């Protein structure tokens, strides 16, 4: 089994973006964009939302890329939008998400991504969070399954695993 790297270089992200751009010519790409919306992110939530909206607009400008927004918050809430290619619709969805106290639900995000990939092509998963309060062995197993299928999983962290 290939090693799962925890450090993503700018080169790896650039290579992925080039792959997505080429995929748009061949029928489009699909990106699951998952965010931690727990209370620990509340202080930086507005700035994060602005950056995410800018990313949605840039993705729409490339064309041919569908994004599914997944977020978790509270005690057990984990939701996914439908697949969307229009940045304004994604922006409206993102604007409605507010932070709530609760623990991380990264495993649920990974399980959702696995189910989505079984339903149809998913090009990559990008997850943005600031903590990990779950069993790391269970997360590693779920992440390895996705890695074996896609080779394009990115984790952007403002914190670390507990």
Structural class: alpha/beta
**What Rg do the Cα atoms give?**
15 Å
Number of distinct helices: 5
Count of extended strands: 5
Unreliable stretches covering 5 or more consecutive residues: 1-8
Pattern of helices and strands:
HEHEEHHEHE
Supply the CATH superfamily name: von Willebrand factor, type A domain
CATH architecture call: 3-Layer(aba) Sandwich
Given this structure, which CATH class is correct?
Alpha Beta
CATH topology title: Rossmann fold
How do the strands and helices of this protein lay out in sequence?
Blueprint: H1 10-26, E1 29-36, H2 45-62, E2 65-73, E3 77-80, H3 87-96, H4 106-119, E4 124-132, H5 136-150, E5 153-161
Parallel strand pairs: 1-2, 1-4, 4-5
Antiparallel strand pairs: 2-3
Helix pairs in contact: 2-3, 4-5
Report on this structure.
The chain has 162 residues and is α/β, with parallel strands linked by helices. It has a single domain, classed as Rossmann fold (3-Layer(aba) Sandwich). 46% of the residues lie in helices and 24% in strands. It has five helices and five strands; from the N terminus they run αβαββααβαβ. A five-stranded mixed beta sheet has the order 3-2-1-4-5, sandwiched between helices. α4 packs parallel to α5. The longest helix has 18 residues, at 45-62. The protein is globular, with a radius of gyration of 15 Å. Mean pLDDT is 81; it is low at 1-8.
